[in-house]
Each structure stands twice: as C-alpha cells, then as structure tokens.
Amino acid sequence: MDDYPLLNLFWTMLWFFIWVMWLFLLFKIVTDIFRSHDLNGWLKAAWLILVLAVPFVGVLVYVIVRGKSMAERDAQQAKAADESVKAYIRDAAGSGGRTGGGADELARLAELKEKGLLTDEEFRRAKDKLLA
Hints:
The protein has 132 residues and is mainly alpha-helical.
C-alpha cells in the first residue's frame, strides 16, 4: 500500500466515477436516438455511428445539439406512463370513468329518494340497474 498513495486512490475513484457517468449517459443517448420520432433512419444511423465511433466527442456533441429535446421526450414519456397507470387503475377499480364507485351512486340514489325526488319504484329500478 506504500507504493499507491492516497491521492492516487482519489484520482482512480474520480476517473472511475466519470467513466460510470459517461456509460450511463451513453446508454441514455442511444435509447433517446431510437425513441426520437423527428429523426429519420439515416440520421439515427449517423448519430449512432458518431456516438459509438468517437464516444466521448459524440456524446458531448449529442448533448449540446439535442439535449433540450431529449429532456422534452423524457417528460412526454413520463406523462404518457403516468396517464397509462391512471387509466389502468381506473379500469381495475371498475369505476369506468365515473367520479365515484357503485356505493357512491347508491348513496346518491337514497338521498334523492329521501328528498322525494324519486318514487319507490324509480328507486328500486335504479338500484337494480346499478347492482346488476
């Protein structure tokens, strides 16, 4: 351990961290290239060749040129995923787009009957339809 001072260990850790961050950015850029709908096939191929052939320069150029649109695509994908999850939850809960569930509808019907706005026959039909 005497032949490897603490400062060298620090520099090794720093370069390792930079390398890991670069790999993360490289994978992010490659997925963004394929996700981008505003690039045609030839431009996607050109960006891939640039990023893979000249890695450090290609990644830096991509972030400078397309960094803003990259963030916009990430936000759009997150919003679409959020809407998809909410739609799935609504379907799984069985509300079918209503604001309340069946119990809320039944309570509203009972309230209308108590106020005298529904007759017993109308209440029974609406309740049978709701529970069916």
